[in-house]
TrEMBL record:
Alphabetic keyword roster: DNA-binding, Transcription, Transcription regulation
UniProt-listed CDD domains: HTH_LacI (cd01392), PBP1_LacI_sugar_binding-like (cd06267)
Name of the featured protein: LacI family transcriptional regulator
Location of the HTH lacI-type domain: 6-60
Amino acid sequence: MRSKQPTIWDIAIKLNVSISTVSRALRNAPDINPDTKKAILDLAHELDYQPNTIATSLRKNKTDIIGVLVPEFVHAYFPNVILGVQEVANAAGYKVMIGQSNESLEIEKHNLQAMLSSRVDGLIMAITRETNEYEHIQSAQRKGLPVVFFNRIVDELQGSKVLVDDYRGAFRAVEHLIQTGCRRIAHLAGPENLTMSRNRLNGYIDALKAHAFPIDETIILPCDFVEGKARFCTQQLLNLPDRPDALFAVNDPTAIEALVCIQENGLSIPDDISLVGFSNAPHSAFVSPPLTSVVQPTNEIGRVAARLLLRQLAEGPDFVPETQTLDTTLVIRKSTQPVLKAV
């Protein structure tokens, strides 16, 4: 059975002082006798006294806690963003409460309610792949919860947003494939409701158009971040009589599923099919062959999101939401051929 946590009442009774005296000593207030303060602090240490943060937050109407809600922890992207959030939040005196929704809309709703019940001062979030209605988020915003969105962004949600230049990153990736001699480039796409997916698709299409390549809708297949679907879609592409000679995947997990499927079919990467991902997940450099990928500055995404949220908390109703777009780079590895001198 858990023992009762000591309170300021216990300290006051043992030392025969008032509760207000104990409270001032614990806050290191200057208007208290030094000997009395030392006796209170020594006894608090001896009893392993911990302040009641809930009571404190009710008095301050502020918890100094930032919530971070992400769709999954399976891949390194979201943990790396959280590290960036923590760096900025902790330096500003905030604690971070983290929830992950396992790509479930219902769990996302439950986690958001838990954040509200814990009275977080603000929230940084990326929605799940199932999230196709947004009343739970909009309701929280109407109650005054500041929210900053990142990565999984939809137009229906208002607020500050942090994203990368998905369009330019996709354009560079597909142009790289063209420059290596690829002529039939397929796309394994993400959920259509996400701005990120649409921008990467548009970058893919415009890169093909810029080099006078036809747009073939039959080799643009939605994978929607569903585990196993990328392998299914890749198999469909490999079964075509005129199979693609390259695949551009919406993210690295999708690309790695495609890589496994390609190799299971006895084909060589990049000799038979070149492959490019997006996000540069840590394990992408260690698969065989190592994956060419678009690099996203994940830690910086978290830092920027945290700074935006802290600014909103500081400025209150005067804060004007803004969107910040970070650049990407392309890291070239052995899943694509060397660039040809002339295309």
